[in-house]
Amino acid sequence: MARRDGNPDFIEALARGLDVLRAFQPRQPVMSLTAVATAAGLARPTARRVLLTLEQLGYVRSADRGFELTPRVLELGMSYVLSRSLWEVARPHMEQLVALTHESSSIAQLDGSDIVYVARVAVPKIVALVVTIGTRFPAMQTSLGKVLLAALPPEEAERVLAEPSRSGITPRWQPDSDERAAALRQVRARGWALTDEELAPGIRSVAAPLRDGDGQVIASLNVNAHAAETPLDVLTDRYLPLLLATAGAISADWAAFQSVPQVTVARPVPPEPAPTGTG
Q1: Does an H or E element contain 208, and which?
Q2: 2.40.50.360, 3.40.50.2000, 1.10.10.10, 3.40.50.2300: CATH of 12-69
Q3: pLDDT tens sequence across 83-93
Q4: Which residues pair with residue 217 across a beta bridge?
Q5: CB–CB of 126/228 below 8 Å?
Q6: What is the mean pLDDT of the chain?
Q7: Rounded to an integer, what is the distance from CA 125 to the centroid of its chain?
């Protein structure tokens, strides 16, 4: 936890904000205000103000019984990925998938109406859009996003899609609500998603869900190909079975990883300042 030292340039408020971001523990994405204050070594009112500021900036969001990080913290570095250890679990499986397909593979999570890339194993190819960790695209026009949206109840998916994209990309496909609903119904029925040059020319991919031990979709995994090099039938007939097997293996390893007991040491909450005055 940060504390003011003799350096006049030290910014205590910034340090407290970073303390709060670091308070979110592996395998504990949702934390109550009290838990955040305890982990950050801050008084509850201070922790609350920091959380509300981070929420307004888009780095945390309110969740059931507490707060959780958003993928936007990837813009600050890799802390979001490492806090969940998903990269360490998925990497060997993704590397094997890329070796078999000779195509790039990525993992993404949903942030509003966008996807944010949180892991990637790439092959050197000329592509229409450059993708790195932290890149965001409109979700509905990507196979990764379709999988994540299809995991939501239809009403929730429409609510999410009503949020403005922060990706800066104008996708080729601009579906209306009926087209969106039909596309997501198809993904739910299949259990996987396909996109063919809906985001930008030359980009086609298939994606499958990654699940935790409770069967909840936590992310999506894809195989991405260039339309001029990889026909659709190769993508769906040859690469899709490999993708589904890889997604199943990652999900199984993630469930096992979650089941390992973790020991955390709580830091004491500083006492509230004593009230002033005589009452």
Answers
A1: strand 203-211
A2: 1.10.10.10
A3: 457 888 899 99
A4: 211
A5: no
A6: 86
A7: 25
